[in-house]
Write a structure and sequence with these properties.
This protein is an alpha/beta fold. Helices cover 35% and strands 24% of the residues.
Length: 398
């Protein structure tokens, strides 16, 4: 039986472990953290990723979480709509819902699909040899026919495979994330754009609401006024994702978040005030596509391969896609690179483009953007959705 070692028990690493096991591989997933403490809060699982999870037997559990319902779209800070569509139209176009769920729920669903002995917590990989496939740990060296490097944004394995290649860059934007109790009534599911800032609202399936916000800021800035680079994560575990960085003091960050958004439309200020905890991270990404996603017996996956901005909500979805294609490609990793590199490059560039569009901070440029988007929505309700066809209509290999 062929043996695979997966480095990192994030969403991509866990999905790869499941997919490879279903293909008959003996799999060990290494995670340097002693427990699976989840970085982040909410995420979207789009139809392209749901098709993979269906094939792995996890789709129904994910669908038990909340799906986007009713109207969704983009608003101005005063609450007026720039563009909007009905979630039912998206479902009809793409064949499935977009599931919004807490990241911990997805991790739990994936862990449940792996046998307990396949997951090794508290065990880091200190070195990897791409030619032999050996993985060095504190407990000895593991021999593998395949090593899957799913060790996050600051992947040490990527650094070893591609020394000198540009690492993650700061996008000039910081982000905040909160999870709060549902305030009652009907919530409009939307992103609000204005003055270079974004505030997003989405309902989770457990009576809570996930909110995220972004604003321009220098790298490492916090409410306390400090700045500095975040240290690289060691081999053998997952780092913070494409919105990489360390969480700052929650009380100070709540005040900072209110400073940015107190004058925006309801219920944004009330949601912020109700937050028990605020997490802040800088948004970083790999701005230049890698020349390859593999070397020898090692394949890069997820943020280690293509860390992208969160503007399309596709970071986790692309990692899930990676896992399906990798399992279908082995042992020929050149097939994996040939299949995945053009697609993830396209998705990452589109996500970056939308981030720049949302972050416009010039009144004339904002007016032109909003006018064009509003006109497009009136001319064809499905025009915005149609632009997502290349992303959402992807199907896993059979």
């Amino acid at each position: 039986m062929s043996r695979a070692v997966v480095i990192g028990a994030g969403i991509g690493g866990l999905t790869a472990g499941i997919a490879l096991r279903r293909r008959g591989w003996d799999v060990t997933v290494l995670e340097r953290a002693p427990t699976l403490e989840v970085v982040g809060a909410g995420l979207a699982v789009a139809p392209n990723a749901l098709r993979v999870l269906d094939a792995l037997g996890v789709g129904d559990r994910v669908r038990s979480q909340s799906a986007l319902q009713g109207t969704a779209g983009i608003r101005r800070p005063d609450g007026s709509w720039i563009t909007r569509t009905d979630a039912g139209r998206a479902r009809a176009r793409f064949g499935d819902d977009v599931i919004v769920m807490h990241r911990a729920m997805l991790v739990d669903a994936l862990v449940a699909a792996l046998p307990p002995e396949a997951l090794r917590l508290g065990l880091a990989a200190s070195d990897v040899d791409p030619e032999s496939g050996s993985v060095v740990t504190a407990e000895g060296t593991l021999a593998a026919d395949l090593v899957v490097a799913a060790d996050g944004l600051r992947s040490s394995v990527r650094g070893k495979l591609l020394p000198g290649f540009p690492g993650p860059v700061h996008t000039g934007v910081t982000s905040w994330r909160i999870v709060v109790s549902h305030p009652g009534g009907t919530l409009e599911i939307a992103e609000s754009w204005g003055g270079g800032k974004v505030f997003g609202i989405a309902e989770l399936g457990d009576g809570r609401v996930y909110c995220y916000a972004t604003a321009p800021a220098p790298a490492g800035a916090t409410a306390a006024g400090s700045a500095g680079a975040t240290a690289a994560a060691p081999v053998g575990g997952t780092a913070a994702g494409s919105a990489g960085g360390a969480a700052a003091g929650s009380a100070g960050e709540k005040a900072e978040l209110l400073r940015h958004f107190a004058g925006w439309h309801d219920p944004i200020p009330a949601l912020i005030r109700s937050a028990p905890e605020v997490t802040r991270t800088d948004i970083r990404c790999l701005d230049e596509p890698l020349p390859t996603l593999h070397s020898g017996k090692v394949a890069l996956l997820g943020d280690a391969a293509h860390a992208m901005t969160p503007n399309l909500g596709q970071g986790a979805c692309q990692a899930i896609e990676d896992a399906a294609v990798l399992a279908a490609s082995v042992p020929d990793l050149s097939r994996y690179t040939a299949s995945r590199l053009p697609r993830v490059t396209m998705v990452a560039k589109e996500s970056r483009r939308i981030g720049r569009l949302a972050g416009l901070d010039n009144p004339l440029a904002e007016w032109a953007r909003n006018t064009a988007m509003s006109l497009a929505g009136r001319l064809g309700p499905d025009l915005i959705l149609r632009q997502m066809d290349p992303v959402m209509n992807w199907r896993p290999p059979t």
